[in-house]
Design brief:
387 residues; mainly alpha; two-stranded antiparallel sheet; 2 strands
């Protein structure tokens, strides 16, 4: 009787978390990530054995570590991909704050491991590179600031994001880490441009970056040595670039055969920065094209899904994450084929490195969360909220 008078309370049928996640996630991107990680383990079986031999360790010591850290990265990626955009924003802001403090402490308690750049904290059993974890958090913070600036009476988010970029780049340049600095500036430029920046400002920033590059070329021997090596018409066959170039040429279309490559015995960074050279030598151009296609699928699919996104923050943050992921891969492979100067940048999910693979997992988790299919509502609802 009561229900006839007052009406019954509607029962809201909620879909379980995992089925809803599986239904809304971009399965092409998710599959591409798992395939890239599998390829990384496959290449690690070849590339890391010589390093383990030189260091007196078990042959597959580094492969086992990569599998361990990669497993953590994939679990973290899936967990983050289940978050809402608001939760992703909170995670990104907190992660950026912690990473920025760690970056500031590097000159005091960091180490260079004999590579000429203080980029790591040594924990004894492992090392941590703060700049890897800084990137996804930086993208989230900048996207939040620029999206907030579009609100009525919103904060001057564009100005604050530019100042924040200068601070981050300054600390990265102190290491020095010009590759990550360039990636941070690129990420800011992408988000700023999508957020409605005038082209004039982008051109001015590009000019400032060029002038800064000339200054660092004169002031930093580390930076100048890499630029001179890139610009030299002749490649010393005894350098990493020389070994990598020769390995790519030897591989041809189909490679020299599994386990038959020689570059892994000569390249100190065959398992990290130059792992694409191992892929090209042993498996040939075919595997390189597959790797390129997988990165292309991730970036194109993500940007395509973001075109339908109405939330400014999700659109800006997703575009920034997709672009830095793709550009990092492009830089790594560009260095190996001598299209770009040496940067010391890993190939996401393929290169060896605990910090690199876990940070890539965080980045992809955020991107998958922001590109999940969500109810869009009606256009009338958007106008109603605007009033």
């Amino acid at each position: 009787m009561t229900e006839m008078v007052y009406g019954s309370n509607p029962i809201r049928v909620t879909e379980p978390v995992l089925p809803r996640w599986w239904r809304t996630i971009d399965k092409w991107t998710l599959t591409s990530v798992f395939v890239l990680f599998g390829i990384g383990l496959l290449l690690g079986l070849a590339a890391s054995v010589p390093l383990a031999t030189r260091n007196g360790l078990e042959p597959f010591y580094y492969v086992q570590r990569q599998a361990f850290f990669g497993g953590i990265a994939l679990v973290v990626m899936i967990a983050i991909s289940m978050m809402s955009p608001a939760m992703v924003r909170r995670l990104g802001v907190m992660g950026f704050a912690v990473s920025l403090v760690a970056l500031m402490l590097l000159p005091v308690i960091g180490t260079d491991f004999g590579k000429g750049a203080v980029r790591w904290f040594s924990l004894g059993f492992a090392s941590v590179q703060p700049s890897e974890f800084l990137k996804p958090g930086f993208v989230i913070v900048v996207a939040w600031l620029i999206a907030s600036a579009q609100d009525l009476n919103g904060p001057p988010g564009k100005t604050i994001s530019f100042a924040l970029t200068l601070v981050v780049v300054a600390f990265l340049a102190m290491q020095p880490d010009f590759g990550q600095s360039a990636l941070i500036i690129f990420a800011w430029g992408v988000i700023y441009f999508i957020g409605g920046a005038p082209m004039t400002l982008i051109v001015v920033v590009g000019g400032v970056v060029g002038v800064a590059g000339l200054v660092f070329y004169e002031a930093s021997e580390h930076f100048a040595r890499r630029i001179d090596g890139f610009l030299s018409p002749d490649v010393d066959p005894r350098t990493q670039l020389g070994y990598a170039a020769n390995a790519i040429q030897e591989g041809g279309f189909f490679g020299v055969g599994v386990g038959e490559g020689q570059v892994k015995w000569s390249l100190p960074d065959a398992h990290t920065d130059f792992i694409i050279a191992v892929a090209a030598e042993e498996y040939g151009l075919i595997l390189v094209l597959v790797i390129l296609a997988l990165y292309g699928v991730i970036v194109v699919r993500s940007l395509g899904r973001l075109l339908a996104e109405r939330d400014p923050f999700a659109r800006l943050a997703g575009a920034g994450l997709a672009c830095i992921f793709g550009v990092q891969a492009m830089i790594n492979m560009g260095v190996a084929v001598r299209l770009l100067p040496a940067k010391g940048m890993t190939l996401p999910f393929v290169s060896y490195g605990g910090s690199s693979v876990i940070a890539a997992g965080i980045t992809m988790g955020m991107l998958l969360a922001l590109t999940r299919q969500r109810p869009r509502g009606q256009m009338s609802d958007v106008f109603r909220r605007g009033r």
